[in-house]
Protein: Cytochrome P450 monooxygenase
Organism: Ceratitis capitata
Amino acid sequence: ETPATTMGFALYELAQDEEIQQRVREEVNEALEKHNGEFTYDCMKDMVYLDQVISETLRLYTVLPILNRECMEEYPVPGHPGFVIGKGMQVIIPAAAFHRDSDIYPNPNTFDPDNFSPDKVAQRDGVYW
């Protein structure tokens, strides 16, 4: 049910903001026109803003708020040489907390698909992990 839930939240957010809704509508129409009305993989890849809307929906309405992982090899924590995550150690990643962190996302409680524009993603990429 995760995809149905995500789509419900995305539609809710689109209903709240006519500007975002119009921008998505225009992008979808342009992509379909470019691909002769066929909804293909390439057509979908041209819908960059729609992808941003979905990513922002997943950020605000986190499906898995906590991720559990096992460390596959010894990992010294950058900037903290005294801390080492040992091989085989269980690691808990607070995804929901990262998604609402104002150091990562300005105005973290506001729906803003531009949080996932290519330039903003590039600025964050690798900075926090």
Summary: The chain has six helices and four strands.
